[in-house]
Write a structure and sequence with these properties.
mainly beta; 3 helices
């Protein structure tokens, strides 16, 4: 109830714009407000807004309209607490706990910052913040029920003040008790954003403030797996299963102030130059707390060191960039210089015996550049480059290159070549702990270098696509089975290939998605399933004299059995399995769902993991952490265009 009250104070919620429409059907089309009375009688024009009057964009994207269609992909998005399609991941038993990533992917939010992997799945980066342009005050609510007790509710209110300024306020609150002991999740975030354009169009500014918290109780998983697999009916009540940790928790805080503005000094179209300035400050804090030492982590008092029970790590990034832009419709080029002040530290100094520093601080100087070329609306090249250098964290270089073209009408090809060399994620550089064996400082690590080559082909037939990716990671940085950071002396090579299609017959539709992957070398450093598959068979139709639209179907999710990495709560990271590794996967996860759209309101009702109602749950997210049992999952999305 308190989340509802907070949401009412902030006046509602807009669409969490992680929705990606592959056909870009939500691009802004020509024409917006309809004139339904031209004012011939009394000179007063009457306007009726259309969906094209409700738009959003990120800092460097084109504008799109709100996607209010009941498409098949919505059932994968609005049944997830983070409102994203999480294909290639497997969820922990409680919402708000994150996922075990089954597929290798590059998360640029971890570059030169502290961001534990399991805390990363709801984080909103700079390029995730939405700026709006709406004709009337707009609100959207997104609701998810919880596991056991609690709820998740996201709401945003956005409004234009005049034609040139828009502001938005978003609040998300999640609290879910979970079905196991010490399993509480409590996440929240608040976002303030604004967008201003001068009347003459020469000046434009974007600003936002965001504060996110991802907090979890940590129970260390099931203490006796045999009780879960073979125990009597008494253990069907999951609260009766003993867990490894009794009084531990982890908290992550993410805060950012962002301001970016640009000015066009010349009015003539012959001189399409702009000057852009961007400044932001981002602070990340990670805490691991416990009321007393957990016997699960040590065998003898001599393994403890003189350090507080609760530990803290943090990183800060103050970034200041000035660029010059050449800005035309089909050709954009900008380049600039960047200064960063970066810090990485711990709250309480390490015990003197370790000799580790308490804080690393450095000034970094670098450059940024972007190129966009659009030819005949058929070929588009988008290239980005960022470079910086410092004493502690070395050279950072990231190059992203995306080529889009349409060789044949309605057939699209996206090709990418990305390169990155950067310091390992800050969470693996240092860690303080009351447990002596979990203290470390990775001094002067080698840069982790990632080369990514891939792309996808979108075909007209069956709305299908085929994709392939290849990764080469040099100096791959990982946590071994003792939770100590290591760097590989040889490269890790990963290949991925897959596809998706939609087959339709009347009102019946089948949407399968497949992924095959393999580590070509160093397979033991990144265990992964060789195959991940998902199938969605559904019926969709208008009903009740076209007043509602209904989807009803079955979803199956499956990945092959493999010896998964283990979850390590102290760092909120995944570590290599030990000698007695536990395999996960090899069992289907079946859901039955019923979705309905009535005007601008969507209902998503899903019986998750339904097969556990007639067979015993033997599925795991990671070793010692069972996958959720059967639950009735409810999602509601409501757009209010005033």
């Amino acid at each position: 109830m308190k989340y509802l009250l907070l949401c009412l104070l902030f006046a509602g919620s807009i669409l969490h714009a992680q929705v990606v429409n592959k056909t870009d059907s939500n691009r802004v089309k020509s024409g917006d407000t309809l004139v339904i009375d031209t004012g011939h009688k009394d000179s007063l024009k009457i306007f009726k807004p259309t969906i094209n009057d409700y738009q959003y964009q990120t800092r460097f994207s084109e504008k799109k309209i709100f996607d209010t269609a009941l498409s098949y992909d919505k059932t994968f998005i609005f049944t997830q607490y983070n409102n994203r399609d999480n294909f290639g991941r497997i969820q922990f038993s409680n919402i708000g706990e994150g996922f075990n990533p089954l597929v290798y992917e590059v998360n640029t939010e971890q570059n030169l910052s502290l961001l534990p992997t399991r805390k990363s799945f709801f984080i909103l980066g700079i390029n995730d913040i939405k700026y709006y342009d709406v004709k009337t005050p707009t609100t959207t609510f997104i609701y998810h029920n919880s596991v056991s007790t609690g709820a998740a509710l996201q709401s945003t209110y956005t409004q234009n003040i005049g034609k040139n300024f828009n502001f938005a306020v978003e609040y998300m609150g999640l609290r879910s008790l979970g079905k196991y002991l010490h399993n509480l999740s409590a996440n929240n975030n608040i976002v303030f954003s604004g967008h201003f354009t001068s009347k003459n169009g020469k000046y434009e500014a974007f600003a936002h403030y965001i504060h996110q918290n991802v907090n979890n109780q940590e129970n260390g998983g099931i203490a006796d797996i045999d009780l879960f697999l073979n125990g009597g009916s008494n253990f069907n009540n999951r609260l009766n299963l003993p867990v490894n940790l009794a009084n531990s928790n982890s908290r992550f805080s993410y805060r950012r102030y962002f301001f970016s503005h640009e000015f066009r000094p010349f009015a003539s179209e012959k001189f399409p130059f702009k000057i852009r300035h961007t400044i932001f400050h981002q602070g990340n804090k990670y805490y691991y707390g416990q009321q007393s030492p957990e016997s699960y982590w040590f065998a003898d008092q001599s393994e403890l060191v003189d350090y507080p029970l609760s530990s803290k790590k943090y990183s800060e990034n103050l970034s200041n960039t000035v660029s010059v832009l050449f800005d035309q419709k089909n050709f954009k080029l900008d380049g600039g210089v960047r200064h960063q002040l970066i810090k990485l530290g711990v709250g309480t100094a390490f015990p003197a015996a370790f000799g580790y520093p308490q804080e690393l601080t450095e000034n970094r100087i670098g450059a940024v550049g972007n190129l966009l070329i659009n030819l005949w609306e058929k070929v588009e090249l988008n290239a980005n480059l960022e470079f910086s250098n410092g004493n502690h964290f070395g050279t950072y270089l990231r190059s992203q290159n995306l080529l889009k073209f349409e060789p044949i009408k309605d057939y699209f090809v996206n090709a990418k070549v990305n390169f990155q060399t950067a310091s390992p994620t800050f969470n693996l550089l240092m860690n303080p702990s009351v447990y002596g064996k979990f203290n470390y400082f990775l001094d002067q690590p080698k840069n982790e270098t990632i080369t990514e080559i891939g792309g996808d082909v979108n075909l007209k037939w069956f709305k299908s696509s085929v994709f392939a990716n290849y990764f080469r990671i040099d100096n791959y940085t990982y946590l071994d089975s003792h939770a100590k950071p290591q760097q590989s002396g040889s490269s890790l090579n990963i290949s991925q290939i897959g596809g998706e299609a939609t087959f339709s017959y009347g009102k019946f539709h089948l949407n399968p998605k497949l992924l095959f992957q393999s580590a070509i070398s160093n397979k033991d450093l990144y265990p992964m399933p060789n195959f991940i598959g998902r199938a969605n068979f559904f019926w969709q139709s208008k009903m009740f004299k076209n007043a509602a639209e209904v989807q009803a179907g079955i979803k199956l999710y499956y990945f092959t059995k493999f010896a998964s990495r283990e979850f390590f709560p102290i760092l909120n990271e995944f570590i290599l399995p030990g000698t007695n590794s536990q395999t996960i996967g090899g069992q289907p996860i079946g859901d039955v769902y019923f979705n309905m759209k009535v005007k601008r309101m969507f209902f998503f009702i899903e019986a998750q993991h339904l097969n556990t109602t007639f067979m015993k749950n033997r599925s795991f997210t990671v070793p010692n952490y069972p996958l959720y049992d059967f639950r009735l999952n409810l999602g509601i999305v409501w757009y209010l265009f005033s």
